[in-house]
Amino acid sequence: MATTMLERAEKKPAVPSPVPAWISLVRAGAVVMVVFAIALQSMARTIIPPVLVIGLVFLAATPFLKGERRGLGAGLAVFGAVAYLANLPIILDDLAHPESAPAFVLQLLSTVGVGLVVIGGVAAWLRRPTRLLQPLAIAAAGVFLVGTFASLGMAANTDSAAALPGDVQVTAEQLMWAPEDIAIDGASTGIWIDNKDGIRHTFTIPELGIDIEVPALKARRVDIAAAPGSYRIVCSVPGHEQMTGTLIVSS
Ligand SMILES: [Cu+2]
């Protein structure tokens, strides 16, 4: 009799075990990171190798995230955390400027994504899925939505300066100044700076004490009073060291 029952039990189709909460969290975070990688590169209109690698790693790992693969979840958490910390100065700068909405929203997305993966990864490592995981995921979504609406509102309320007649135009696009050499003379001393990027820039001429904040997709103008000569133009945003140019002032 006992043997028959045992046989019956063995023949019963296996009931799939529920997906552990931590794996759902890591999966959700991984999907967010893939979306982040696609969105950031689309906005920049170029392939950014480290971002491409981050996106591909999460994309490749996500299908293999299953209940028994705790190591993979924990490994993704470490990878996500290291990638995040390596870019921390850039991320913090973007998060400190919500009026430049595209960059702010993307960094909020990466923060939520890495946060979910790390919390899920730690839960996997401790082998202690807790009831807190679902509220944490809901809180992360809430932070993202509130932050996004606040940022879009601030961007909408940020003015853009119009060019005045005679202004020399300089454009910030794809982390470059165009043109890189700006010539002004006694007749034209105004410069109109048009930021076509989804991230903030600064039009900075250290020698002249000029440091103009130009939010994403906005324009600013500045009047220059300088002795004839050439002056170095930079952008002081972290990671924008390649944005250099020269202001040539003739008499
Ligand atoms: Cu810049």
Structural notes for this entry:
With 251 residues, the chain is α/β, with parallel strands linked by helices. It has two domains: 15-156, no CATH class; 168-249, Immunoglobulin-like (Sandwich), CATH 2.60.40.420. It has helices spanning 2-11, 21-44, 49-61, 70-86, 88-95, 101-126, 133-156; strands at 168-173, 176-178, 181-184, 190-195, 201-205, 210-214, 219-223, 229-233, 245-249. Strands 2-1-4-7 form a four-stranded mixed beta sheet, with no helix packed on it. The protein has a three-stranded mixed beta sheet with strand order 3-9-8, with no helix packed on it. The protein has a two-stranded antiparallel sheet with strand order 5-6. α2 (21-44) packs antiparallel against α6. The chain is elongated and about 75 Å long. The relative contact order is 0.12. Copper (II) ion is lined by residues 175, 201, 235, 237, 240, 243. Copper (II) ion binds at residues 175, 201, 235, 237, 240, 243.
Helix content: 40-55%
Average pLDDT, all residues: 88
Instruction: Give the helix/strand class.
Output: alpha/beta
What is the total tally of β strands?
A: 9
Secondary-structure element sequence?
HHHHHHHEEEEEEEEE
| Gross morphology | elongated
The value of Rg in angstroms is 25 Å
Relative strand content: 15-25%
Which strand order spans the largest sheet, edge to edge or round the barrel?
2-1-4-7
Query: What is the makeup of the main sheet?
Result: 4 strands, mixed
Number of helices: 7
